[in-house]
Amino acid sequence: MRRVPLLVAFALGMISIGTQAMEHAVKTLSPERLGMGNNELAVGLSQDWQRPLPDVQRALIIVHGRLRNAQTYLHSAEQAASQAGQSATTLVIAPQFLNQDDIERHPSPDSLLRWQGNAWMAGEPSRGPGPVSSYAALDAIITRLSDRQQFPSLTEIVIAGHSGGAQVVQRFALLGQHHPGLEDDGIKLRYVIANPSSYAYFDEHRPVKVDAGTCPGFNDWKYGLLKLPAYAAGQTAQQLEQTYIKRDITYLLGQQDTDPHHPALDTSCAAEAQGTYRLVRGHNFFDYLKQRHPQGLQQRLVEVPGVGHDGDKMFTSPEGQKALFGQ
């Protein structure tokens, strides 16, 4: 007699799990596709890049956060470009790193790349259809932009992200492959890292004392350089650091991003070893860089007054517009 209620409870539980998955899925898939062999990456674009864009002087690659809401970030970047008077000369590209929940909610071709959970943040390979690192996907966008027949006037590529997207950009600046064709064509590559929860450090030093016994993974990737993803194969920690310190990077920090209990803040022991909240974590990491490289860096830290953990306000602020567009 008890089997019926148990079966009903089981069925209701499965429905609940399915509903939660639907709630966690993105509301909108970005409409454009970037071909990568037999795979395709979902992207949002401010202009049609299927035709030559002779007026485009800057490409802004904007990386979404953990919600994977690429269209929201696309619109924020478009608004920032408009306010800066740079819409006509800027192509905004918003890659979308989908996961399995998104594919289950939205009818999608088998060729569309998808990752396991938030594995894309750390540059892990996609779950399907082929194993492609999210960082390799950014490389593919850069390669597309280096086509001088399509972009004859391009002078710089800016890779920017907020929150989870900023984590991607910081790690990509560290592990990202060299693109010699950009230098040959006079195309500058810059990075804007806004309010990430954590950073990848070069050694075991942390601003907050950490007990390796109770937090054994604090120096593993994505917090340190141990157990690097396959994308980084063949590169030593020293090589990675020397490459990173030569990058043109702006760390953009909201002065009000100081909530140690923010729901999207990484509160793992590995992240807590970097500081209590995002603003102090950013300062701690930048101080760490300056201590290791007192000869100077081509990097800067900029605070945005009156703004907390809000990507739109960060990028549309005067400080954000200057970081993105050099104005």
TrEMBL record:
Record keywords, A-Z: Signal
Species of origin: Pseudomonas chlororaphis
Database matches in InterPro entries: AB_hydrolase_fold
Name of the featured protein: Alpha/beta hydrolase
Domain of life: Bacteria
Family matches, as SUPFAM superfamilies: alpha/beta-Hydrolases
Residues making up the signal peptide according to the UniProt record: 1-21
